[in-house]
Amino acid sequence: MQIVLFMLDRLASLFEHFSLKAHTFQSGPLCGYNKITHQEFGQLHIIREGTVEVWHGRKKAYAVNQPSLLFYPRSLDRHFIIPDNENAQFVCAHVSFEAGEANPIASALPESICLSLASLPQCEKVLSLLFDEASASNCGRQVLLDRLFEVLLVQLLRELMESGVTKVGMLAGLADLNLRKAIVAIHDKPEKDWTVESLAAEACMSRSVFSNLFGKVIGQTPGRYLQSWRIGLVQKWLKNGQPLKLIAEEAGYKSESALSRAFKAHSGLSPRQWLRNVS
Questions:
Q1: Predicted structure pTM score
Q2: Above 70 in pLDDT, residue 6?
């Protein structure tokens, strides 16, 4: 008899509900002083070679002297300084998370991440493909580079979960052997009438131990996390033009009025007011 074991996929529901896209915009050398301000997207910079100082305002955030990855999930003003008479080889992409600020992946990440490529051995193959394509002039180059950056981002999220870089928040919770079961259950079935007891059962823990651990690792109560996940989905569906009645059902609210109350408690606006502001 053949037994097949299925590993819990902690990222499947995240990307099913909230996609990410990358668009390559730089491949080649940079020199001197380079300032990035007021960008609409997150950005991923791969420094293939060279020495680079990375400044956030008046603070030197990173001194890069080996091949490295710099990731900015959200907009953050910064500038790069490359020593005189030298250059650094960059490959860069804009990164956009579906639903913007409501995207739980983007909001779970720190404002910036800097990692040496040597510390990311699982990314070696996709990085090799990405560098080969960036150095060539093949048909479909832009499309292939964009897709390779997206694959790299998924691998990076895996690494961030497993390495413990994020100490508090959703990714830290997904790294926990027990909490991940409850978090994935919320992501998979937001419409279910979850209670702390039922979520604790998913995690195979007692209610009190689960609540305490959840608050310590995630940084909020299970109920607050559930509401945040649901409201993020509601915001996405509102922007996609779905009717409020259908959204209420899919997000786990008993009525439109119940959804509106929860939405206003979370964002300070009714769903329709919020939609007018972002349209």
A1: 0.87
A2: no
